[in-house]
Amino acid sequence: MNKGLKALETKVLDRGQCAACGACLSLCPYLCSWKGRIVKLHDCDLSEGRCFSFCPRTEVDLDTLHQFIFGKSYEKIEAGPVRKVLMARAVAPAFKERAQNGGVISALIDLALGEGIIQAAILTERNTDLLPQGRIAKSREQVVSCAGSSYVAGYTLEALNRGPWEGEERIGVVGLPCQVLALARMKASSQKKRTPVDRVDLVVGVFCTWALDYQPFMGFLKERFGDRPISKLDVTPPPERLLHVKVGEELHRVPLDEVRPFIRPSCQACLDMTGELSDISVGTVEGAEGWNTVLVRTPKGEELIRLAGAKGALETRKYPEDIWAHLKEASILKKRRALSALKELQESDLPLSKKVIDKIFKEVAP
Ligand SMILES: Cc1cc2nc3c(=O)[nH]c(=O)nc-3n(C[C@H](O)[C@H](O)[C@H](O)COP(=O)(O)OP(=O)(O)OC[C@H]3O[C@@H](n4cnc5c(N)ncnc54)[C@H](O)[C@@H]3O)c2cc1C
Questions:
Q1: Are residues 253 and 272 in the same domain?
Q2: How many angstroms is it from 282 CA to the middle of ligand 1?
Q3: Is 284 in the pocket of ligand 1 (CB under 6 A)?
Q4: How far out from the chain centre does Cα 93 lie?
C-alpha cells in the first residue's frame, strides 16, 4: 500500500479530511499552503513519506502512541490521561488583557521560557486577514502578540518544520488536538530524522470542538461585516452558544448555527476535544469567565504547574466536580460523533486501527 503523497492525496486531501495542521509543510517541495488549504504542486512517487506518516488523519494506532508518550496504552478514554484537573488564571495583567480566557497558556509558555525549560515556543499568530500562522516565540512580547484564539484552522506546525533553528533550542509547542496528535506521530515516527521534533520538550494542548475553514468563513464575515477589521472572535460555552465577533469596538453576537456550515469537514471525524497527547491541556471553564480549565497529564506538566504556583505566575482553584463531569461528557460526545462520521468512511480507510475503534466504542457508545 502506498504511504506517500499519493495516498495522502486520495485519502485525506481529496476527501476534505485535511486538518490544515501544518505537519506536512516545509518538509518537501511538493506541498504548500494556500488560503487555509494544503495544495499538492507535483506528483511524488515515494511509497512512504513523512507527509503521510505525520498526518493526524491517516491510519494511526492510538495504543502505540499512548505507549510512546505516556508509557501505557490508551486507557482513560473520556478525556485522555489526567493526573490533575484545576481552574487557573494568569496573574500578570499583560496576559489577562490580551488572552482569550484566563491567559494560562501564555503565562505557562512565558514561564517556561523565563526559567530556561524551553528556549523557543511554536505558537499561532493571526495576521490581519485572520489566517492563523505558526510563529516561533522567544520573548514575552512575542508570546503576548500570539495570545488569543483564532477559530480558523492554521498551519501551526509548519513553523516547527521550517525554523530557522540554531540546533540546540529546547522547544515548546501549543497546538489544537489535531496538531498535538500530529506532533506525537512525528515524535514516534522512524522518519523524524532531520526534523527538530526530538527537541520538543513541552506540549500544551488547546481544547477544540471544531475549527473553521478559512475561505468559506471569510466569505461569511465579509458578507456580514464588510471590510471592517475584526479584532476578536470568541465562542461562548453552552447554554449561550454564540460566536462573539468584535468589529472595532462593536460586539456582534452571531448564533453558532450560522457558523456551523463553515466547520472544517475533517473536524467531524476528530475524536479528541482536549488535546489528549499533551503535557498540559487548557480550555475555558463553563460559567466562569476569565478562568481556564487545566488538565495536567504528565509529570513534566505537573512540575510546570507547581512552578507556576511557586513563582506566582498562576492563581489556581479547585475544579468543581459538576463542571468536570460536564467536560468529560462533552469530550465523550465528540468521540461519539466522530465515531459515526468515521463509520461512514470505508472500513479499510478508517484513520484508526480497528482495535482502537472497538476499544473507544466500548467505552463511549451510548
Ligand atoms: C479553533 C479553536 C477551538 C476551540 N474550542 C474550544 C472548545 O470547544 N472548548 C474550550 O473550552 N476551549 C476551546 N478553545 C480554547 C479557548 O479558546 C482558549 O484558547 C483556551 O481556553 C486558552 O485560553 P488562554 O486564555 O489560556 O489562552 P491564551 O493565553 O490567549 O493563548 C492562546 C494560545 O492559543 C494558540 N492558538 C490560538 N489560535 C490557535 C489556532 N487556530 N491553532 C493553534 N493554536 C492556536 C496561540 O498560539 C496562543 O498561544 C478553542 C480554541 C481554538 C483556537
A1: no
A2: 8
A3: yes
A4: 25
